[in-house]
Amino acid sequence: MAPSIIDQASPQDSAPSSKKPSSSSSDPSVYSIHHAEFSSQPFPSTTSAWLARASLVSSILASDAAARDIANASPVAEISLLKSSGLLKVLGPVEYGGGGQSWEVGYKVIREVAKGDGSIGMLLGYHLLWSKTADIVGSEEQKDRFQKLIIENNYFVGGAVNPRDNDLSITDEGENIIFNGSKHFNTGGVISDLTVLEGVLSGTSNHIFAIVPTSQPGFTFAHNWNNIGLRLTESGSVNISNISVPWNDALGWNATTKAPDPTILNIPFASLLLPTIQLVFSNFYLGIAQGSLEFAKRYTTTNTRAWPFGGDNKASATEEFYILERYGSFHATLLAAEALTDRAGQEISALYLTYSTTRSITARQRGEIAELVAAAKVATTESSLNVTAGVFEVTGSRATGKTVGLDRFWRDVRTHTLHDPVAYKKKELGRFFLLDEVPEPTWYT
């Protein structure tokens, strides 16, 4: 059997790879003090310690988030901060140096980081999903091998898996398979150590996932991500040319028979990959909205002036009825979205805990968790858009200043909530509630 191409990857414990010129990338040395502090502190070992670590990283990122958003540099420094803090390892096996935490905790870590910087919260969320891909669609040997590789080397993982584009083409070349094609979106690819590829094997309808080193000639990044929001996610396009992968790295496939293993790639369990990432989305939407409300709270209490022409004049903005009413409404909305999102996190974590070995969940079980996640997606999409736009009503016109940066929260959620139309989530939920129909698995369900 051919050796895994992954064996050729080199460790990058503190600084991720980057193909951008140094002038367009952030410098990891800006966080030198924090790198040193993290290296001197105990590795988090409890849920509360992980959430405290995420909160600290969030506060570091929040301190200059507006300026970094404007600069739009490739987030090499920010990924180095995630690495040195240990957050990339939160879901990893303890035996390889990971945190051993469940997805329930992982989701809350994503949310916490997104409060300070939506782009970095999103990158962390995608990394956690892609770093666990082999756990969901790979064999037990592949699961163990890739977890060891990712966690021991502290790798950051990106993914070239955009279902709206044509699938990558895969050809069988003896001991290897060859990926070719392109993707319009490739979140985090430019600054990743490893990339998840997905395509269709030529002559079949069978999909194959594989994890490959990013630093190889077959990847050509366009460096063309310059959207209104999530500006530091490096979500631009990529061309993939003749990337060779040994058959034994084809996740969930038998390298000898060159066929998918039906005990691994059974649809209900393997397709949990989709609701898992949909709930990643909900958590960073919620975190961004919570971050905007906390930011607005500080601004209102220190900068916003009371309106002097209302006929019921108050000494300060914090005494005005409409400001209090708006904050109360925003707070209640986000608490409700958080409760639903946490419930979905608890239930999907329980599924993984119970069925990760047997993979024996039913289509009904899979459908029910997909619809709970869909409900969270609806709630977080609508509440985050409402809150991040509405905070300007309680902060005032000066809060629209570019250097203030309050607008970045709305721009971030507006950009990603267009990922897949939430109207279709509502339709699915309607059929589930009214007709008791669970959805068929799709790339977005």
From TrEMBL:
GO terms for molecular function: 3-methylbutanoyl-CoA dehydrogenase activity; flavin adenine dinucleotide binding. Residues 61-147 form the Acyl-CoA dehydrogenase/oxidase N-terminal domain. InterPro entries: Acyl-CoA_DH_C (IPR013107), Acyl-CoA_Oxase/DH_mid-dom_sf (IPR046373), AcylCo_DH-like_C (IPR036250), AcylCoA_DH/ox_N (IPR013786), AcylCoA_DH/ox_N_sf (IPR037069), AcylCoA_DH/oxidase_NM_dom_sf (IPR009100). The keyword Flavoprotein applies. Keywords: Flavoprotein, Oxidoreductase. Residues 1-29 are annotated as: Disordered. One of its GO terms (biological process) is L-leucine catabolic process. Residues 279-419 form the Acyl-CoA dehydrogenase C-terminal domain. Gene3D superfamilies: Acyl-CoA dehydrogenase/oxidase, N-terminal domain, Butyryl-CoA Dehydrogenase, subunit A, domain 2, Butyryl-CoA Dehydrogenase, subunit A, domain 3. Pfam families: Acyl-CoA_dh_2, Acyl-CoA_dh_N. Coiled coil: none annotated. It comes from the Eukaryota. Residues 8-29 have a biased composition (Low complexity). This is Acyl-CoA dehydrogenase C-terminal domain-containing protein.
